[in-house]
């Protein structure tokens, strides 16, 4: 693993994928709860003059409950949004890192949501983090198409390591028997999800010989909030993360999630898009600070920061330590997060 972290800091990536529908797993089952209009659970009622009774699918209700506990945007969406040109609505054509980084974000997001963890095996510590086997611990749907698709694959397949899953979902494999694990059209599907959430809109642009769907930003407040959080982590001596719909106050691991987003943006070569307003020296200090974050959080237990190396984020280690202490039963999930960050540190050598 490179101690200096990533060196390719600048550039951003192409977005030229087409829409792809995921088939949901609504297969008939003998269990009564799988019926299309199961009325065993509590029935929803519309408040009105006639008091109409409305039938509902309990799985839809559980998805809504899941969404209500989570931030408005996933890690993948935040990284993609940072990389998009605001008015043009597409990624730079010279980025070859973002696709791989986005798959890593899917694994991190599933771990933060308590869906996957490292396999509970004392012998796992003999292996590097990225080579430890992960398993599904909660197969309930998240309501996010890409997350549910990845979770379904992990549940139905043999157990594999973090680095193996990121490789397979990115299509980085010579094993033709496992090519079906590749998650396709991720960037376009994420963009369409952001359209549904009111952050982007869809347009068609002509690029000389072909037309391409683009997704300009319509809700600049969402992207501004992400930029502000990145600059907060990368340049402030004391980091304070005000609650918002993108980072609710009751959310677990608010600081660690933000650190993971910053490191993933760095690995995806889109971090500089949030730092363009900084002077050259300040920006270079910010990049050096992210190198330190990658070194600190790409191992578990998380390493202790050397005091005062950049004078940035002096409270981060303690804030993350407090979050970990409040969630001691989730250490195996945090190992997955650290393993993904360790893959990010050697992303250049993998691509």
Automatic annotation (TrEMBL):
UniProt xrefs under InterPro entries: GPP34-like, GPP34-like_sf
Region feature (Disordered): 1-69
Comp. bias (Basic and acidic residues): 35-49, 57-69
Compartment(s) of residence: Golgi apparatus membrane
Transmembrane annotation, as ranges: none
Pfam families linked: GPP34
Topology versus the membrane: Peripheral membrane protein
Keywords: Golgi apparatus, Lipid-binding, Membrane
Main location group: Golgi
Coiled-coil stretches noted in the UniProt entry, renumbered to this chain: none
Superkingdom field: Eukaryota
Assigned protein family: Belongs to the GOLPH3/VPS74 family.
Protein name (record): Vacuolar protein sorting-associated protein 74
Native species: Lithohypha guttulata
The organism's taxonomic lineage, starting at the top: Eukaryota, Fungi, Dikarya, Ascomycota, Pezizomycotina
């Amino acid at each position: 693993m490179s101690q200096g972290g990533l060196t390719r800091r600048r550039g951003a990536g192409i977005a030229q994928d087409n829409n792809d529908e995921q088939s949901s797993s609504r297969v008939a089952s003998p269990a009564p709860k799988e019926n299309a209009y199961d009325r065993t659970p509590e029935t929803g009622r519309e408040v009105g003059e006639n008091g109409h009774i409305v039938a509902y699918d309990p799985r839809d209700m559980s998805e809504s409950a899941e969404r209500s506990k989570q931030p408005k945007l996933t890690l993948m969406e935040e990284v993609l949004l940072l990389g998009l040109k605001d008015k043009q609505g597409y990624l730079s054509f010279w980025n070859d890192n973002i696709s791989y980084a986005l798959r890593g974000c899917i694994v991190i997001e599933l771990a933060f949501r308590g869906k996957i963890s490292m396999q509970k095996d004392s012998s796992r510590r003999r292996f590097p983090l990225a080579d430890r086997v992960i398993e599904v611990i909660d197969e309930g749907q998240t309501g996010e198409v890409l997350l549910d698709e990845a979770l379904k694959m992990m549940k139905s397949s043999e157990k594999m390591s973090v680095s193996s899953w990121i490789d397979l979902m990115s299509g980085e494999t010579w094993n033709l028997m496992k090519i079906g694990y590749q998650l396709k059209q991720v960037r376009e599907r994420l963009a369409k999800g952001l359209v549904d959430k009111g952050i982007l809109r869809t347009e068609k642009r002509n690029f000389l010989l072909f037309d391409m769907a683009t997704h300009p930003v319509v809700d600049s407040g969402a992207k501004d909030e992400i930029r502000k959080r990145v600059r907060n982590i990368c340049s402030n001596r004391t980091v304070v993360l005000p609650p918002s719909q993108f980072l609710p106050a009751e959310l677990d691991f608010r600081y660690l999630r933000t650190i993971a987003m910053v490191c993933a943006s760095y690995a995806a070569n889109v971090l500089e898009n949030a730092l363009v307003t900084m002077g050259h020296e300040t920006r270079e200090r910010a990049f050096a600070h992210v190198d330190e974050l990658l070194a600190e959080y790409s191992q578990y237990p998380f390493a202790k920061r050397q005091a005062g190396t950049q004078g940035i984020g002096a409270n981060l280690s303690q804030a993350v330590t407090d979050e970990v202490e409040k969630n001691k039963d989730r250490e195996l999930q945090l190992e997955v997060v650290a393993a993904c960050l360790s893959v990010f540190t050697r992303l250049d050598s993998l691509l």
